[in-house]
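User: Structure tokens for this complex, please. No commentary.
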Amino acid sequence: MGGLAKGLAIAECFDRERRRLTVTEAATMTGQTPAAARRCMRTLEALGYLSYDGKFFRPTPRFVRLAAAYTETDPLPRLAAPLLDRLRDELGESASIAVLDGPDVLFVARAEAHHIVVTGQRVGGRIAAPLSAAGRVLMGAMPDEELRRRIEAGVHGPMTQKALHGAPAIMAEVRAAAERGYSITDEEVEIGLRAIAVPVVDPAGQPVAAMSMSAPSARATVEQMIDAFLPGLQQAAAALARML
Amino acid sequence: MNGRPEDVDQRDYVQSLERGLAVILAFADHHPRLTLSEVAAAAGLSRPTARRLLLTLEALGYVRADGRAFSLTPHVLSLGYAYLNSLDLTAIAQPIMERIVAQVHETCTLATLDGSDIVYVSRISTRRISNLSLVIGARLPAYASAMGQAVLADLSPGGLRHYLEITELEAITPHTIRTEAALHERLAKVRTRGWAEVDQELETGLRSIAAPVRGSDGRVFAGLGLSSSAATIRELRERHLPLLLEGAAEISSRLGSEFSGRLPS
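Assistant:
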């Protein structure tokens, strides 16, 4: 692995659970020697991306530049933003766009609802694709074999007691979702949270993104999500597909 | 792109990492697709070097190639969002900012210093929350903004010297501070008061106040600002400053700070 790959692997290590890392921790997480990890971290520090207090390295605001380089240039979040804003305004819950990124769905745009209890993933957040409503609609057109491989690789046990168990059950839901045009997770990712997703398809019918809304279970039953959110979501997803 | 700081040992420096990050940043400023030559020019690299880095970034999933054009993939967010998420600043600040906006009906912004600019981390306008993904990364010259002055006022003397070395004080409006002496004087005032105000220094007709947000080390690392194109500076100060200071202090304390924004004298 070259220096660039090593450095970026370390930059990806920082998240909600790991707000600061020592050289040893970063080396273990990325499978590098401590000497190599140290060089990368010192370089990121010299470039202003990490701060160092003698023991721990922490990310600095400079990382925002990298995220902005993507969000300023990819048409997907830019075109989706007004549609998500309108969904949020009309329906009162958060609306998001997600894409497949390796074994996960990655959230790339979001209109945040005005509530004290915030639900769902913020921009840059990720969930194992087979476990999320967005992931299930994104995998809808995949051949059986690839789908099974992805589900088996991506799922290490259900996230809540209400989650679908095992690859066959998830495969069946992916196929059923493709048939009905949407997928719902009912407290499968987190107890107290429901989400509904529809695919944004390209002219060949391939899903290129998922548009989803999430709400606390207390504010929306499964039936309400279908009745209240689904028509607006489908309309917005179709509008986005036309723009892409 | 920054040059390599001189105090870093050559053996500790991974040049391909610096250059790879420069390639990602070459796409900023709204260039959705770049050719190899354009990347090389924007990142200040030779074509063979830029090509090698682009291929590495493509193999790692950060860049996609489409014929002769290259573009960034959403995977780049794994780098940028890692910071926002690990700091949890947005999650902590947004409910507090929403509360402020609901009461004062002016736009509230949280911004941190990056080089000679301040960068928006979060912004809530009176018309609903703007989509964060399109707002993060917006930049303003720090010396001309209230949020920037709130952060600059807490820099160490060395930090401020460095800031002035890399910054050109330009007259953006007739009211902009344009000498170092005037800026030093202003920052001293900000330190004494514990907050900053800017009257049409950034944009004619735009007035802002800002309060410092402190990290767990007690240093100011962000400014929480309110801007208005309707209110006078005096109205902003008299009506909204206490709320803003309170909000900034609350964000600071939730960040685990032992310090809080100083109250106005």
